Amino acid sequence: MKLEPIENSLSETILGGFSSRGLRVLVNPRPEFVGTFGALGTNFGSVDRVGNGQGQVIPEGLAHFLEHKLFEDQMGDVSDRFSALGASTNAMTGFSGTTYIFSSMNEVSACLELLLSFVQTPWFTDELVQKEQGIIAQEIRMYDDDPDWRIFFGLLRCLYASHPVRDNIAGSVESIAEIDAATLHRCYKLFYHPRNMCLSLSGALDPEVVAEVVERDQATRPLDELAPHVRTNPEEELLPTSDRHEEELSVSRPRLLLGVKETVLGGGPLEVARRQLCSRIVLDALFGRASDAYQSLYSDGLVDESFSASYSGEPSFGFSTLGGDTDEPDQLEDRLRETLAKARHEGLGVAALERVRRKIHGMILRSLDSTENIAFGMLSEHFHGLKPFAALELVEQLTVEELDNRLREHFREDAFAVSLVRPCGS
After folding, report:
1. d(C-alpha 215, C-alpha 19), whole Å
2. Taking the model in full, what pTM does it have?
3. Cα-Cα-Cα-Cα dihedral of 154, 156, 160, 163, to 10°?
4. 69/15 Cα distance (integer angstroms)
5. Is residue 54 over pLDDT 70?
6. Domains of the chain (ranges plus CATH)?
7. DSSP 3-state assignment of 406?
């Protein structure tokens, strides 16, 4: 495997190549560092409920279930073997991807070999699947008791009528009961193949050694004849299915989330990236810690450090969320709506764009001090069809007019929904 330099706006050393089986490999050598962070990701997450256009239905929560099961094989828990190497390991399942990671300051080659081995060598039995069902069912019940989880997915169920983004990433107790070893094997073959995966590494490692380890591993794998997964767009209503979700839980204070459903979907990688970036800049300009609105809300006692404003989006879905803990949820909701209405009318202004532009510059430059941030960033950019540090170039191109257009097309009043959790008996 040949690793070649990838051009990027920061002139950072990033090398890329493909294994003989089609696995994308990205390496950021940092000889001045003492540690290494590795991430092996697959383009398969909780929203993938139909397999590769073949019409095969995938149970809710299966991506997360697979993540759990790959950590156990004939030798026991893989985490113990990473610990024996002085390394840590973990994994996470999101809406559109699953990622397996390790972090180590020594034995990098052995850690990389182990990462490639356990993720690409599944071992499922019905007995172990049944055991895992009990473990994940307990995890799901734990999520059901988590106010943050309840309010978030309560909001998504208001925003989405049928898109799988509305469902718990871990699934439900009923849906995981349908999973057996045969189902895991079928879905593993659909999504865990080299051309649908990417390996990303950053830190104190020798790129030539990485290439040798990867090719030695890949030589033992069958040829990959499957195309990368192409995500389908499920049918979905344009506007929220409901404008409000409220429930009482065992919390000490109310918690409010105002959500905004994305109504502009589809597009190529750069179009989606610009949509994401513009939305996040608008939110930061209006509700970031340095904004007039946040300072006013904070001084009036309507928000505290739990307040956040964020945007998540893919070609088939997107949403913004704003809110946090508050003693006056009705007042907070009114003020958030008023701030957005005023911004839609007046626009953002050049000063707000420049302030946030400088902030993003600083965030990207600070990320270079973290092997974890770089490895995750390269992985995400690969799956989104972007080159490394694409955000830095995009943010330089943005204009106030583009941000104002984004503000008005996304933060429209008829795309709003609210999720609210109140203390029991309030």
Report:
1. 6
2. 0.95
3. -120
4. 32
5. no
6. 4-218 (3.30.830.10), 244-423 (3.30.830.10)
7. helix
- Over residues 232-275, the pLDDT tens digits come to 888 899 999 999 999 999 899 999 999 999 999 999 999 999 99
The encoded tokens of residue 183 equal 């189902």
Distance CA 61, CA 45 (A): 9
Active-site positions?
67
Q: Which has more pLDDT, 359 or 55?
A: 359
Residues near 206 by Cβ (< 8 Å), separated by ≥ 6?
29
CA-CA distance, 353 to 395, in Å (whole number)?
A: 10
What does DSSP assign to residue 166? G
What's the CA gap between 366 and 368, in Å, rounded? 5
Angstrom distance (rounded) from CA 32 to CA 9: 21
Burial class of residue 170, CB neighbours in 10 A (0-12, 13-18, 19+): buried
Residue 56 reports pLDDT greater than 80: no
Helices (H), 223-291: 269-287
- pLDDT interval class at 405 (50, 70, 90): very high
Quote the tokens at residue 93: 């399942």
Region class of 385: left (phi > 0), else alpha (psi between -120 and 50), else beta: left
Q: What is the pLDDT of residues 62-84, one digit of tens each?
A: 999 999 999 998 898 999 999 99
> For 53-60, which contacts have Cβ atoms below 8 Å and span 24 or more sequence positions?
53/230, 53/232, 54/190, 56/186, 56/190, 58/187, 59/171, 59/175, 59/176, 59/178, 59/179, 59/183, 60/164, 60/167, 60/168, 60/171, 60/172, 60/175, 60/176
The answer to whether the beta carbons of residues 51 and 99 sit under 8 Å apart is no
Sign (positive or negative) of CA dihedral 128, 129, 134, 138: positive
Beta bridge partners of 39: 101, 200
The DSSP 8-state label assigned to residue 144 in this structure reads H
Interatomic CA distance for residues 22 and 68, integer angstroms: 25
What count of residues does the chain have? 426
